[in-house]
Amino acid sequence: MSPGVGALVALNLGYAVMGTVFVWAVRGMPRWSDVARLCGLGYLVGVAAFGVVWTELLVLGVPFGAWQVPATLVVGTALSAAAGAWRGMPLPRGMSSSPSGTTTSLLVTAVGVALVGLLFEAFFRSARLQSVQAFDAWAFWIPKAKAIYFFGGFDEQIFTVSAGPTYPPLLPILDASAFHAMGSADVVTLHLQFWFLVLGGTVAVAGCLARHVPAWALWPSLLLVLTVPRFGEELMAPQADVLVDLLFVVGVLLLALWLEDGRGWRLCPVTLLLAGAALTKREGLLFAGVALVVAFVAAWPERRRAWPPLAAVTALVIVAAVPWRLWYRSHGIGGEAPSDVGGSGSADRAWDALRLSVDVLFDSSLWSVLPFALVLALAIAFAWGSRRQAAFLGAVTALVLLGGAWVTYSYTDLAVTADEALNPIVRYTGAIALLVAVAMPLLLSSATQERSS
Amino acid sequence: MPTSPRRANSDNGFDRTTSARTFFCITFGIGGGNSVIPDQDVLFEALGRIPADETFAVAVGEPQQGWTDLTATYAETFLRYFLLPRRVDPEARWIICFACDRQAIPGARAVWEGEDGIAIRRRQP
Fold first, then answer.
1. A357 touching B, CB under 8 A?
2. Are A171 and A286 in contact (CB under 8 A)?
């Protein structure tokens, strides 16, 4: 293993430890099997927390250097550990007393883990030697990361002259951390950072769902999502699309589980994940808004209990998202709002934009059978499963889809086409495709549980 | 193999231990530049010749036969990415010239010339 790869392993381990200790502090993890199950969620939370904190610090002008990366991870871990100790959380002890589930489900889990492991081994070899081909990557994502790495902050020239000046800086901050860990701006090895993000996101989804859905629903869904044609091409591209999708999807998953069981700790990671999404891409703000608005509506029956913490989550996400917007406005960069928010555009364009979104979603050369599987799972859940969960996940999916149509409609400089050089709708739709990984197991298992009960 | 990758080894971020490995990494590092920069030797030469703490300008003239559709429009964008931490400055001493108008930069001497009208020029102090 080359030193650069080893350093990236250490850095990502640092994210995982910091985030997992945070999850322990808010939830508690009685056994080491809980730690193993939730370390993926911890990893994503660690990544989001690191990015959110450094976005705010860079806006304030705090320099970003080599020692700040480990210092942040150590301080973040220590603060979470102190909070957990103060709340009286016991340390994990022992593994789960007995294996849960039937022999069949254990077998399915073993096969699922093995197949996903094989897939990630192949992804690793592919990511290890990738060059930076995507236009957005070399036009602004990596230049911004290099600027943070070389100059220690939001360099005015790079951040104001590069394309996409309003795009939030969380991903460039993570890239710059990877450069510091590797000791150089090695844009080839950098692809492994994206491998870690996808691996962490997959472990997060599997770990969060493991206790809530049967193995037969979880692993085939995960494998199906990971092997669609589009992800085979773009999963490791050093751009922010996959990261924003992962943060959003795991946030939605936690909200869906929270609506079912009302366990308040889930809203702490949701806050960090959605704040991270809002600081990763511009549509991250839209995704976070969709997830929270639908959660508010879904929680209507328990609004007295559920709305105050949801309002706190919303407020914290907004507070986290605002400073970056203030920074670029103070540097004379136009807002990220579209050229035509709506109303004055033509009905033809609105219809074409909606049709484009639907066409892209149901394009089997991109997403294989994912959208059809999602529609089927929604129908099954509405008929025989949890209608509330189906309504929540269906509404999130529908609003994200409509959000994509609104983007095409309202940014009048975007052509109404799936050509990625002219319209980001294909990359945007990846959020719905990834959402299937959490929606399908939840919906199908709710149907079988309802029927068996 | 151009000699520049060896010189570039010290300050371009691809700090590997052998020139072969450096060449390999730089070649992969070019990535999307394959479709933008027609004579990629200019990338190696610029990395090796322009000190990391200096600035450079990009001057683009009439498109030449060997150029791609993207060269004239995106050469500066790609070089801005590839040559960081070297910043872009229109008044820079170093000029990366894509069939540029030599009259417009009087006193600039070619320090390297490649194919398709691509050259690196340096203004005399």
1. no
2. no
